[in-house]
Design brief:
Strand order of the largest sheet: 4-3-2-7-1-8-9
Largest sheet: 7 strands, mixed
Distance between the termini: 35 Å
Structural class: alpha/beta
CATH architecture of the largest domain: 3-Layer(aba) Sandwich
Number of strands: 16
Length: 280
């Protein structure tokens, strides 16, 4: 799934037009006022799922108790406020695109309307929210996919050989705050990679591992940018006939990713900052 922020005057209007222009299922996450009205910069979040621009579900939070209301073509939930990342992650397993309306501080690629200078990566800047969308669609399609463990598992379950599979094995690597109780706490890790080389190498590893007997699908994904302690970094997912080949292939997948893919890690602790490869 490709996930981007749309921010600036007319962001909601542009998001609606992009939802019509993008192929596949499109989810929209909006920042709404406390009274459920138009965006006002308040912290409450709503999300909608659209296929060909048609609303298929909404989420809004009002109380501390969680309630789901299910209809034939829509659903609602009330409960503790989700973060933007929570909402995007909920869309990832079965959507092709997610558009976050507002949220200029979010750590996602951004389409900016007007002259604002939000932090992070700006993939496109437009003067008119009612202007052409073709270039914006192309820019969104070129962003790095937003993946979660759940979205990768959902993807392999849709594989042609899924009915022959009796096992899905996964590995999740996360940011460890400290090795020992007395260590300085790691505040975050920052990852950089040679984009084309890293992506090509990961796809090659996936293809090679998937040729093993009894292995049907392999997916590798490594996040880049700043990742705070406690968050997930890397995923390996294997669809296989039986657990033995699934477990073995997961272990080989993460070992080969770490050994063969050009990804560089900066560690920021409470007392220092350093590139990990310079100390190895």
């Amino acid at each position: 799934m490709h996930a981007v922020v749309i921010c600036g005057p007319g962001a909601d209007r542009l998001a609606g037009r992009l939802a019509d222009a993008l192929a596949g299922r499109v989810g929209v996450v909006r920042q709404v006022a406390e009274d459920g009205g138009k965006p006002s910069g308040a912290s409450r979040t709503s999300s909608e799922s659209a296929d060909d621009g048609t609303a298929a579900g909404t989420v809004h939070t009002d109380t501390a108790d969680t309630t789901y209301r299910l209809g034939a073509e829509s659903w609602e939930a009330t409960g503790p406020d989700p973060s933007l990342r929570d909402a995007i992650e909920r869309l990832a397993p079965d959507h092709d695109h997610a558009l976050a309306v507002g949220f200029p501080e979010a750590d996602l690629p951004k389409v900016v309307i007007g002259d604002a200078e939000p932090p992070g990566e700006v993939i496109a800047r437009v003067a008119d929210p009612d202007g052409p969308t073709a270039d914006l669609v192309a820019a969104i399609e070129e962003t790095e996919p937003f993946e979660t463990l759940e979205s990768l598992v959902a993807e392999v379950k849709r594989a042609p050989d899924a009915d022959r599979s009796g096992a899905i094995a996964t590995f999740t690597g996360r940011v460890r705050a400290r090795d020992d109780p007395d260590d300085d706490r790691t505040q975050y890790l920052e990852f950089e990679k040679y984009e084309a080389v890293a992506a090509t190498r990961m796809r090659a590893i996936e293809d090679e591992l998937a040729t093993r007997d009894g292995v049907f699908e392999v997916r590798l994904h490594h996040r880049t940018g700043v990742i705070p302690d406690g968050e997930d970094i890397v995923f390996v997912v294997v669809l296989a006939g039986h657990r033995e080949e699934a477990f073995r292939t997961v272990a080989d997948g993460i070992d080969r990713l770490k050994d063969e893919v050009p990804i560089f890690k900066k560690e920021v602790t409470e007392s220092e900052t350093f590139w990990v490869h310079e100390r190895e």
